[in-house]
Amino acid sequence: MIHFSTIPIAVGLFASSIRKTIPISLTSRQSGTPTCLHSPLVTTLEQLVDCLKAYTVPHDYYNQVTYKEAQPTTEERLAWFDASASLLTVDRNCSLIILPSAIAGKYSISLYIEHTGASYCVLSESRTHNGVYVKGWGLLVVPDSVDAVHRHLHISAPHPVWDSRTPAQAAALFGSIGAKSLLIPGRTRTAFMDPTNCVKGNSGQDIYHRTDPTHDTSELFYETNKVINSWQTENGGCASSSCAFIQFHGKSASTCSSDDIFLSTGLGRDSNSVDWYTNSVQRPVKRLKSQLEIEFPDWNISLPSDSRCSLTATKNVVGRFLNGIDDTKVCEQASNANLAMGTFIHIEQAAVSREEKAYGGWTKALAETFDVVQVQI
Questions:
Q1: What is the arithmetic mean of pLDDT over 208-229?
Q2: Is residue 123 within 8 Å of 109, Cβ to Cβ?
Q3: 277, 305 in Cβ contact below 8 A?
Q4: pTM: predicted TM-score of the whole model, two decimal places
Q5: CA dist., res. 370 & res. 290, Å (int)
Q6: For a surface tag, which of 30, 67, 294, 332 has the fewest beta carbons within 10 Å of its beta carbon?
């Protein structure tokens, strides 16, 4: 039985629960509309996200002219914000959302139903050129009903393609834990190689690019996190017991090689930050570390207080904003232990942690770390 939404794209198909590799024909190199949302072979949200990932704007794709053409205008930005805010209020009315005219035709909102019956409201790009997103502003997903939200977790995979397997991992855990939002950019971090004017690196080997969504505030990933944070603030705030903004990243085997999972909250290793990580206050990142150690006892799971790994996310602009830095200052000012409440969790992982066989352990750890929210229907 095929489930159709009332908007142009019909999605979801009850089919075998066996996971499949999406064939290249679904991500053909011709201009047009991504076919993932209405493919009979895409039966899970994880598969949908993996299929759409193939359209990600690739490495060194833009020049000055094409980058400017792909960037949203002021009107398009406002329309994107409105669409994102509308998505966050969905409750079995996904098909009724009307996109603002500035982005209608460029993006679409679709009801996607998994083979399990789980349903999601998806804001995704509807145009490609030679198999690549025309704009690359990203993908936002929420559960189609309020009662499907079990925890106010906002999950993202900021570096698709670059951090392999993180989009599929983020999608799988978003669904299994009953999270509120899933956000994935539509560009790889090096799609435009010009250095960002936002966060500056320390050396020639530490340069951030204009399309790196965690280090440049002009990317819609940053602004969308602000929209999500506004929704969360208006809906009781981000309680430590049941809420967090979680970014899933991937590291190479040679980077922080002794750590299988390295967790941080965007603080470094000054004495106040070390105290923040080691004192008795039960912050989300510390609870998650403890639960992950239960699920993966043979892995080395660390915080900045017990590892020398340099991937502390102190320059992550989303982390800085969530950690109390004013929106106008996130490019140049890091947060500190006096401001950070633990809302932001940054996860760097070895390849083993991103494998499908680890999803069950991750789901259990997240479920034990965060309480179920009491939803008013």
A1: 98
A2: yes
A3: yes
A4: 0.91
A5: 12
A6: 30
